[in-house]
Each structure stands twice: as C-alpha cells, then as structure tokens.
C-alpha cells in the first residue's frame, strides 16, 4: 500500500472543458492563497482605484447559472463555481500534481491499483452541525454516479464493482464502495486506472430538498435562504472543516458577454474569471481600474489532417511542410492579441502530460520547401510544387469559430508563399480541418485519439499502456510519448490556446490572484 500523496506527486490536474466561440467562455474561478507554485501572470496592473466602492461583502461574478448547485448536477461553469463554494471534496488534485486533503485525512492505494482506502478527518460535520460519517459520504458520493450527473464522475463510477449502467441511481449497497467504520471507506474498482482518483474530487453534500435548493453543506459557505435565481447571498459555514471562514458573506451576481465590462469597471463585481477576445481585453486594460491575471485555458484551436490514403497529406513530409510554412506566432499576435497564446502541444502546456516544451515546427519557408522536395515534389514556373504534372492543392475546412476568417486568410497566403495551393470548403471532403477542441484530460486520452482518428498502431499500444499505468508518474510518461508521437508524425498542428483571465476590481477588497487553477473557496475561506 502506498499513500495517495506519493501516488499523485507528479500529476497535474487536467480536466477537459467544453468550448465556445464567444467573448466569455468559462467562469469556474480558481485561485490559491497558501501553497503551491504561482501560475497566474499579471497582464495588466490597475493604476487607480474604483470610485464609490463601499460594499462590505465581496461580490463574485459568474455566468451560466441554470439552477444546479450540487456537484452531481452542476453542469454549467457558473454552477460549478457555486458548487465549489458550497461543497467540499475528499481531495483536490493541484496543478503541480500534488494533492490537497480536504475532507479526507489520507488515501491508500493498493499495489495493483484497484483498491483505494479513504480515511476521513476527525470531527467532520455538515453545515447544520450534524455528524458527517463514512456512511454519509458513501450516500453523497452515490449521487455522482447518478445518470444525470457530469460525465467525468460517471466515468469513474463505471469502473466501480457493482456499477449498473442501466440504472439512473446506483444502489446504496453497491459493493464498489464499502464502509468499514465511521471514518473509513474502501473503494473497489474493476480495473487499475490512474484516473480513478478523480472520483474523490467530487463535492460532498446532502440533498435535503433539491427542488427548493435545500442542502446540508460541507464547503466554506452555505446558501442563505432558497433563492431560485441570481443574485444570491452565501454566508459562512460555521461548521467548515478548516476552521473559521474570513468572509461572513459573499454576494454572487450574474455576468455575461454584454455586461462584464460595466460590472467590473463600475465595481458591481469584485472578481470574476472569463475568456475574452482581443477587443474586450483592450478595453478592460484602458479602464485603468481592473487588474488582469492570465493563465492557459483548456480550449485549443487545431489544424487536423484528414486520414485518407488519397489525400496528399497522407504523406508525413507534406504535413510537416504545412506546419513549417504557417506563421503561427504572427497569426496569434495579429488576430488574438493578449487573448491567446501560440500552442505547441496536444496537452496543456507545461502539464505532466505534455511531451513538447517548445514549438517543434517553428516558421521556416525553407524547411517547408525541403520537406516537399523530399516527398517528390518540384516547383513549376508558377512557383507551385507539383508531382507528375499535378499541382499540390489542399482543401481546407474551417468551422465558424472565433478568428476563423483571419486564420484562413493568413494560412492561404502562407501556403501559397511556400508553393501550396489552398482551397476552402464547407463539405466533408477536405484535407485540412481547422477547429476548436477541448484539450484532453487524463480521463479522456482514449476518446481524444478516437475523435481525431489517430488509429496508428503505436498510439493504440500507448493508450493501452496508459490504462495499465501503476501510478500517475508512469501515466505521465506514457502521455508524453503519445504527445511526442503525434507531433513527430505531424498528425495535427496545435495553433493557439485561449487564455483564461481573472479580473479583479481595484476597490476596497484587496484580492491578489496567485494561481488561476485554484477554487474560490481557497481565496475567500
């Protein structure tokens, strides 16, 4: 048996998120106050204070609240932010791969990776003062396996012994979760998988009356009253596991792409997180009263190569030529400005999964032409590469995502300069596909390979090894190999990653963001 702290030592939290081509994408705000490495960079420091900022409570801005508070049903970004404030998990896996024990005292993992023994901290209570014992934790966790809960939790539950995919609600006597005593639970999985640990990151809380927003909470805060919509007031949980909460109340307000600038610059919200376009970031900087922090998000724009033996991109050298010929850095600077950064890996930059630490195909027209010559192409009098009298012409499909038109313009121009003709299409008959994609997490590498049609024998073998990895350190090494294999073969070209921003109004609430990937509860508790 080994401690989960060692088991997770080198792991970084990789959670794939949904994407959207909108001004604001996500609002699940994360920060850190007491440990770990700083990951938030200051893009702009406020030069003056907001006028008229007299409110005592901190105002938090969220979007996409549709009524889901419990972790099992918090589907949208704003709901997840609220859920984190109200419900504490057993553990939290940090960005650097270490583990924070929240309600759990420790977790032991068996040598075969199928049995997890969880010991709870002493004296745990719900927000109403009632005892929180192992049997209660089991009952609360069973909600995460509910057929209506988020996919990530259901994926973990599917590997527990006794899980029934035909049932909407799992049985309370499910053999995969065994209650040993008041402070000990044993989880029995059907297969070893490093991702099993993510089951313990789901918030714990008792549903008293979901229809009326009545719960027993374990987080730093609890809902005041039973409001159905925003704004909401949260008050400090007097029985919070980690002691007294410094904020007595938090006011939660709604933000959207139309009001975020006004809400921030007028001091209606003190802190929020979002993803934005070049124009909005520019306006917030000009306001002078907003401090902007940024980190990398989980949304990426990519150029995929179609797996088709009849296509010219079936040859590795042609794919490499395309990668070398595109001026990625220029496109990101000119089109996205501060709202994004050039990407060079299929996984999150700097994560334990990423095999690349720098751009593998930096812009080089000369190298692009060399690759095409190695593929048997020669330039004709028009400056276009051809083979057997047929010019090299590639068909590009670009979804209607943010900056798609600008990408098509520069990409077409760059390819022509390197001797490649590019034509656009809206049909399914294409060689190249430019689109947004969620960066895969540890739990979704297999789906990522299937979705991108990476049916290479080597990659299939690596994915099988990943599932059998004894610990997260080994899993990370396998993921790095997968990333390097995809990049070496130029099976896809990462273009840019959208930045995740935290915005703080320079008012009476002195808030400093250290880490983009830490929860609100760590900042405000």
From TrEMBL:
Query: Domain of life here?
Result: Bacteria
What are the transmembrane regions?
15-33
Q: Does the keyword Coiled coil apply?
A: no
Locate the Solute-binding protein family domain: which residues? Answer: 103-425
Give GO BP annotations, semicolon-separated: peptide transport
Q: Which family does it belong to?
A: Belongs to the bacterial solute-binding protein 5 family.
Protein's UniProt name: Oligopeptide-binding protein OppA
Per the UniProt record, the source organism is Anaerostipes caccae
């Amino acid at each position: 048996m080994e401690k989960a702290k060692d088991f997770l030592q080198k792991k970084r939290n990789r959670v794939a998120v949904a994407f959207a081509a909108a001004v604001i994408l996500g609002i699940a705000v994360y920060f850190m106050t007491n440990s770990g490495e700083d990951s938030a960079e200051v893009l702009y420091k406020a030069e003056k204070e907001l006028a008229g900022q007299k409110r005592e409570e901190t105002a938090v801005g969220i979007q996409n609240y549709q009524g889901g508070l419990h972790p099992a049903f918090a589907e949208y970004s704003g709901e997840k932010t609220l859920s984190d404030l109200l419900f504490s998990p057993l553990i939290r896996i940090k960005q650097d791969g270490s583990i924070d024990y929240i309600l759990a005292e420790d977790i032991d993992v068996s040598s075969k990776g199928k049995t997890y023994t969880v010991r709870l901290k002493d004296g745990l209570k719900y927000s109403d003062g009632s005892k929180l014992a192992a049997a209660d934790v089991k009952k609360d966790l069973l909600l995460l396996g509910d057929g209506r809960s988020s996919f990530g939790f259901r994926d973990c539950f599917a590997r527990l012994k006794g899980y029934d995919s035909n049932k909407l609600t799992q049985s309370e006597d499910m053999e995969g979760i065994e209650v040993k005593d008041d402070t000990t639970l044993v989880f029995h999985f059907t297969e070893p998988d490093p991702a099993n640990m993510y089951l313990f990151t789901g918030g714990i809380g008792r549903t008293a009356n979901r229809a009326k927003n009545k719960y027993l909470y374990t987080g730093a805060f609890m809902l005041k009253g039973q409001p159905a919509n925003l704004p909401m007031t949260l008050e400090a949980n007097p029985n919070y596991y980690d002691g007294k909460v410094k904020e007595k109340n938090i006011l939660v307000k709604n933000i959207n792409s139309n009001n975020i600038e006004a809400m921030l610059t007028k001091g209606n919200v003190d802190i929020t997180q979002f993803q934005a376009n070049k124009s909005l970031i520019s306006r917030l900087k000009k306001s002078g009263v907003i401090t902007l922090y940024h980190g990398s998000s989980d949304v990426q724009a990519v150029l995929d190569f179609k797996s088709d033996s009849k296509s010219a991109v079936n040859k590795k050298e042609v794919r490499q030529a395309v990668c070398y010929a595109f001026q990625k850095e220029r496109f990101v600077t000119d089109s996205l400005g501060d709202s994004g950064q050039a990407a060079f890996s299929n996984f999150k930059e700097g994560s334990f999964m990423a095999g690349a630490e720098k751009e593998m195909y930096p812009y080089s027209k000369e190298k692009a032409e060399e690759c095409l010559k190695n593929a048997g192409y020669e330039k004709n009098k028009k400056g276009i590469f051809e083979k057997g009298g047929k010019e090299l012409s590639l068909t590009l499909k670009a979804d209607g995502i943010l900056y798609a038109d600008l990408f098509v313009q520069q990409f077409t121009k760059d390819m022509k300069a390197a001797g490649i003709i590019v034509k656009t299409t809206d049909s399914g008959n294409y060689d190249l596909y430019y689109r947004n994609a969620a960066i895969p997490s540890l739990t979704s590498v297999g789906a990522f390979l299937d979705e991108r049609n990476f049916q290479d024998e080597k990659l299939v073998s690596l994915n099988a090894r990943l599932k059998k990895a004894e610990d997260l350190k080994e899993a990370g090494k396998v993921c790095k190999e997968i990333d390097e294999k995809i990049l070496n073969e130029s099976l896809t070209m990462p273009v840019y990653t959208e930045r995740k921003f935290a915005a703080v109004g320079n008012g009476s609430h002195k808030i400093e963001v250290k880490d983009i990937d830490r929860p609100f509860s760590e900042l405000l508790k």
